Amino acid sequence: MPCFRSSRSGQILSRLPSLRATVEGSVAGESTADEEEMPPGFWEYALRDSDLARGQRRILQVATPFSPQGGKKIIIARVGKDANVYAFDYMCPHLGVSLADGKFGVTKDGCTIQCSQHNSIFNIENGKCEDWLPGGGFNVLQRMVTPAVNLVTYPTLIRDGNVFVDMSQAKTRGNFEDWVEDRPKMKK
Q: Of 3, 97, 160, 186, which shows the fewest CB atoms inside 10 Å?
């Protein structure tokens, strides 16, 4: 059964009656025709849909299966032609630099974010690295020793005016010490 926890309170969502009813209905073996069940996963309440306008991003701390009381820092953004909501890791997979100041863009392959430190570009729809350490100078040396790495993205779901993020694929708690253990290893 999916977990419905609020990262802000650490308790089952009680202020969302329809979701609570869905959860209680699935526990009791009942289902209602007018309510959809949440897909499998570790779905975390992130914010109200109305609190994220087109072109905006929010930095949030959300629970993961490894840290149910919160601890993974992610970015949620509403960008692109269709103003879809995307969630992805707060830190660039290269050196752990914050993507909070990253520049959003749109390519033929989808919505992207550009790291403000070394200009790597990541597709925020699927995490694919579009351009790893572009340009000359120090980036040339870094490309020789550091393989390209994709950005971790998380599925989002808007239900009853609330944005939820599936954190079931989160690997670390999201702090720098944990990230250091999972960072890209140098080429041999």
A: 186
